[in-house]
């Protein structure tokens, strides 16, 4: 008969699986500090020895890291998504920027479509909350804050799609974006007209999602990223034209 004895699972293994799930689902994020050992053992209702064994296993696997005097943190699991060589290659070639936007348009369009149909009411509430924060930041005229919330808004849509592979892949992409590898998003938020347009585009995405309009959400994402692509193209063209104009000016001043 194809049966095997059932063995009770060690408590530490249950703790490991729970923390793995939290990291897999994107609830615990890279660099996030875990509660103290005492607090965590109380929350999980396990003994400290069992907790220590679980944390040790997770550190050996690279999912957690310990910092002397600071505590235990979620490991930088995104760091392995792209090699340093590939990141430098992205940064040194403009075509990577437009390929990145095309990739985002495809992936985020699909994520928005899935979020509209598969996201829970709580997922949609998270997205709406972040959009409201974007509206508040918009009135402050703080490009840094607004750009950061923009990334959080888009990632919340990917989270609401409930596809863990897409979630971690896109988090890796957004980390490179935050580091300015593809382009400086804060530049786009400095001009008032552009900022107004971007906010309206995010409102259209949010409205479609709240209405659970899958096709409308995907179309709104495509329109938004099409605008971003065109804005970056025009910015790049203006910079190249100005570089030529600077040379003309230097030549004229020397003549």
What does this structure look like?
The chain is mainly alpha-helical. 73% of the residues lie in helices and 3% in strands. Strands 1-2 form a two-stranded antiparallel ribbon. Helix 1 (11-24) crosses helix 3 and helix 5 runs antiparallel to helix 11 (214-254). The N and C termini lie far apart (97 Å). The mean pLDDT is 87.
List the SSEs and their pairings.
Elements: H1 11-24, H2 37-44, H3 48-61, E1 64-67, E2 71-74, H4 84-92, H5 95-118, H6 121-140, H7 143-160, H8 164-178, H9 185-188, H10 192-210, H11 214-254
Antiparallel strand pairs: 1-2
Helix pairs in contact: 1-3, 5-7, 5-10, 5-11, 6-7, 6-10, 7-8, 10-11
Please give a handful of descriptors for the protein shown:
single chain; 255 residues; mainly alpha
Widest β-sheet, arrangement of strands: 1-2
**Biggest β-sheet description:** 2 strands, antiparallel
Mean pLDDT: 87
Sketch the topology as an H/E string, one letter per element.
Answer: HHHEEHHHHHHHH
Residue ranges: pLDDT <50 for 5 or more in a row?
none
Brief digest:
The protein is mostly helical and 255 residues long. It is built from 11 helices and 2 strands, in the order H-H-H-E-E-H-H-H-H-H-H-H-H.
